[in-house]
Design goal:
- By secondary structure, this protein is of the alpha/beta class.
- The protein has a single domain, classed as Alpha/Beta hydrolase fold, catalytic domain (Rossmann fold).
- Helices cover about 25% and strands about 20% of the residues.
- The chain contains 5 helices and 8 strands.
- The protein has an 8-stranded mixed sheet, sandwiched between helices.
- Strand 1 and strand 2 form a beta hairpin.
- About 45% of the residues are buried.
- The model has no long low-confidence stretch (mean pLDDT about 95).
Length: about 210
């Protein structure tokens, strides 16, 4: 993302997990955000443009942003595990990078939003979540966990109106029983082509609220 991006190799349950770390200018940050990428079998990596946009929003809002490749992607060890092992991967990255003196945030795009939702309900009480961002949530393809009621005010769900990968209706069906608000961007498809700056602005506004 920038010249200060640091490459990391973190230990995951299936072996090393290739990771990248970005921090605000000056190296001082408010907390750590861990960001999960789209489906590994359909080209999803930590270099995905939406994932990079999320990282930029966090960094510009004073957070350290950690991106990583799920098992079997890039230099990460292991093979795709239909979401089960990927949740374990995310939990291991959180545990490796969480600092008890600072807040934690989680974000995910598409398949990564599904994985993030599952990790949220597994977080121990010693890791309170300050912000949650779910983009293009893959509710039509995976069992996305409900967001705990106490986290609703800390959560931003963003979806494109004409998403042809994950229909908006499926996300609304997931959100409706929870009375969880969904921010819909008109005329936008799954990968937010042409609207990444708007996505970054929405996320930044949420982080600063």
């Amino acid at each position: 993302m920038n010249a200060a991006t640091q490459s990391l190799l973190l230990q995951g349950p299936a072996g090393v997990l290739e990771s990248l770390c970005d921090v605000p200018e000056g190296g001082i940050y408010h907390g750590t955000a861990v960001i999960s990428h789209p489906h590994p079998l359909f080209g999803g990596t930590m270099q995905n443009k939406v994932v990079q946009t999320l990282a930029k929003a966090f960094v510009q809002s004073g957070w350290r942003a950690i991106r990583f490749n799920f098992r079997g992607v890039g230099a990460s060890a292991g093979v795709y595990d239909e979401g089960r092992g990927e949740v374990d991967d995310l939990m291991s990255v959180i545990q490796a990078t969480f600092q008890s003196s600072q807040p934690l945030a989680l974000a995910g795009f598409s398949f990564g939003a599904f994985v993030t939702s599952q990790a949220v309900i597994r977080l121990p009480a010693t890791m309170p979540l300050e912000k949650l961002v779910l983009v293009g949530t893959a509710a039509s393809r995976f069992q996305v966990a409900p967001v705990p009621t106490e986290l609703h005010e800390k959560t931003l769900v963003v979806h494109g109106e004409i998403d042809d990968t994950v229909p908006l209706a499926s996300v609304m069906d997931w959100a409706r029983p929870q009375s969880l608000p969904v921010t819909v961007i008109p005329g936008v498809e799954h990968f937010f082509h042409g609207q990444l700056p708007l996505l970054r602005t929405l996320v930044s506004r949420h982080l600063r609220a």
